[in-house]
Design brief:
By secondary structure, the protein is mainly alpha-helical. It folds into 3 domains: 36 residues; 76 residues; 63 residues, no CATH class. Strands 1-2 form a two-stranded antiparallel sheet. Helix 2 runs parallel beside helix 3.
Amino acid sequence: MADVSFYGDAATDDASASSGAAAFGSVLQYVRHCLSIPFIYALFFPAVLMDLFVTLYNVAAFPLYGLPVVRRSDYVVFERRHLRYLGPVQRLNCWYCSYLNGLFAYFVEVGARTERYWCPIKATRRPIAPHRFYDEFAAYGDRKEWEGKNHGRETIGDICIPGHGDGKEGRNAVRGSEHERG
C-alpha cells in the first residue's frame, strides 16, 4: 500500500499498488488535508486572545497570591524553524503546532497552579491526564485533609459564602453529604 504524503509524494514498496492508484490516493489525501485547513487554523485568533488573557492573569494575579509567575517561554518553544529540510508550508505548520501545543501546555500549568492554590481537591473520578500537582490534592470529601492542604487559608469562595465560620451552613454547603467528613 502506498505511504502518501500531504505534499504529493507517494513512497511505495514492491507490494504497493500501481502508480495510478498511488497518485489517486495522493490527490485524495491532499484534498482531505486542504479541506481540514480552515478548521485547524480557525483556532489561531481565539488562541491568541486566550494567550493574552491568561498571560495578563498570570502576571497580575500570581504575584498577588505569592506564586511564581509561569514563564511562557518555557512552554512555547519555536525551534523547528531552524530545520533547513522543511519547506515553507511545513515551517508554517510546525510554527503553528509549536505555538498551539506550547500554549496549551502553558494554560495547563497556569490552571494547575491556580487550582493548587484555590482548590486542591481531587475529583471523584481521576482525570485521564491530570496535571503535575493533582496527586498532592486532598481526596474528594476529606475535609480535614483539604484544610491541611489549604493551610487553613480562607478562599474567596469561603469569604463569599454567607455564614462561613459561624457554624451555620452557607448557601453552597452540601447538606447531609456522605462525602463530607469531619
